[in-house]
Amino acid sequence: MSVFKFKKFSIIQEKSAMKVGTDGVLLGCWISCEKANNILDIGCGTGLITLMLGQRSLNSNVIGIEIDKIASQEAQLNSSNSDWEERIEIKHTSLQQFTPQLNFDLIVSNPPFFPQNKSQQSRDIARHANTLSFEELIGNAAKLLAEKGIFSVVIPKNSEEYFCKIAAVHNLYCNRVCYIKGSETSQVKRVMMEFSFIKTVVLTEHLTIETSRHNYTDKYIQLCKEFYLKM
């Protein structure tokens, strides 16, 4: 069985197309969740970020929604095996069909971001924006977000300007951003961002993952040490 073990929970990912990845782990570690009572994880996959937020935010209730049936089943299993089962709910649904009775203090997503394609393979569907475009993600998140809530994502660096333009149409403004590099000599490929309905000066951060192969920077270790087994 394919299982990724963290310090306080494990992710069974035997059948799901998308496995545990650095993007999701980083976002789950970086998100500002201290004041969130109600959290929504859009496209939760096998429940990685959902469970990370269950661990980090002990007074919160977390809902993870996932359109892929197999992934949602493994997310439910992973939630059931965790210490936070009573505060986590997994729903097999699309964002477009999700109709909760409350707004959320924190909405998070590690969304599909490759251009749409015609493949019917589960991994391609999970990685490409066939079922959830940036416009749909942002528009629905804006409707579901509480007045003082935070909307947080990780996307490719080359999508940053476009994403922010769409967000501004829905009165969402970037308040905090983190640019991620694999090493000191590599280019920024990913960016994590937090949005709200409030315009503020943007807090800009930078994160480099490795100094050399499998030798991690102090900043990366400090960020992820509550989750990775060998940190």
Major beta sheet summary? 9 strands, mixed
Count every helix, treating DSSP H or I runs of 4 or more residues as helices: 7
Q: What distance lies between the first and last C-alpha atoms, to the nearest angstrom?
A: 24 Å
Shape summary: globular
H/E element order: EEHEHEHEEHHEHEEEEH
Low-confidence stretches: 114-129
Average pLDDT value?
Answer: 91
Kindly report the spatial arrangement of strands forming the biggest sheet. 5-4-3-6-7-9-8-10-11
Fraction in beta strands:
25-35%
Structural class: alpha/beta
Relative helix content: 25-40%
Rg to the nearest angstrom?
17 Å
How many strands?
11
Describe this structure as you would to a colleague.
It is built from 7 helices and 11 strands. With 231 residues, the chain is an alpha/beta fold. A 9-stranded mixed β-sheet has the order 5-4-3-6-7-9-8-10-11. Strands 1-2 form a two-stranded antiparallel sheet. It starts with a strand and ends in a 7-residue tail after the last helix. The relative contact order is 0.15.
In short:
With 231 residues, this protein is an alpha/beta fold.
